[in-house]
């Protein structure tokens, strides 16, 4: 049985956690050919949880393994599909990020990729709680 159809549910991959999520959009083959699978991934976005944090003024720090990640483009920036995520995440308010790293992050950027150890150093800077 062919599981393709002329309609598909759109999914995107979360920039922060890398998981697929439904966007709520329906895609339609204008020629009504059975050319699409049940779900179609169209690009990158933010899952509901990370969209909420971004809307509240947080920037996500996504730890990536540089040995397993692809090489950055000519601009020196790593693309989301090149990043090999380790699974470690941290969220900082934008103003705190600018103070800690002494560099602002653009308002439209929801996340930055960091090398292993950066999140651990940030955790070490936090006061001990009992």
Task: Tell me what the structure shows.
The structure is a single chain. Strand 1 and strand 2 form a beta hairpin. The mean pLDDT is 89. Helices cover 18% and strands 34% of the residues. The strands form 2 sheets. The protein has a 3-stranded mixed sheet, with no helix packed on it. The chain is an alpha/beta fold.
Main features:
130 residues; alpha/beta; three-stranded mixed β-sheet; 6 strands; elongated
Task: Quickly describe the structure.
This protein is of the alpha/beta class. It has 3 helices and 6 strands.
| Count of helix runs | 3
Radius of gyration: 18 Å
Shape: elongated
Structural class of the secondary elements? alpha/beta
The average pLDDT score comes to: 89
Percent of residues in helices comes to 10-25%
What order do the helices and strands follow? EEEHEEHEH
- Indicate the low-confidence ranges by residue numbers: none
Assembly state (oligomeric): single chain
Topology:
Elements lengths: L6 E8 L5 E9 L10 E7 L2 H8 L2 E7 L20 E9 H8 L9 E4 L3 H8 L5
Parallel strand pairs: 1-3, 4-6
Antiparallel strand pairs: 1-2, 4-5
């Amino acid at each position: 049985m062919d599981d393709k159809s002329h309609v598909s549910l759109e999914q995107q991959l979360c920039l922060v956690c890398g998981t697929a999520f439904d966007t709520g959009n329906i895609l339609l083959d204008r020629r009504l050919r059975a050319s699409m699978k049940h779900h179609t991934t169209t690009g990158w976005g933010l899952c509901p949880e990370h969209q909420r944090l971004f809307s509240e003024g947080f920037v996500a720090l996504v730890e990536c393994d540089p040995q397993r990640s692809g090489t950055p483009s000519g601009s020196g920036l790593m693309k989301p599909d090149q990043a090999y995520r380790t699974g470690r995440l941290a969220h900082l308010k934008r103003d705190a990020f600018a103070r800690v790293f002494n560099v602002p992050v653009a308002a439209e950027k929801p996340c930055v990729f960091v090398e292993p150890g950066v999140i651990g150093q940030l955790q070490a800077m936090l006061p001990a709680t009992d």
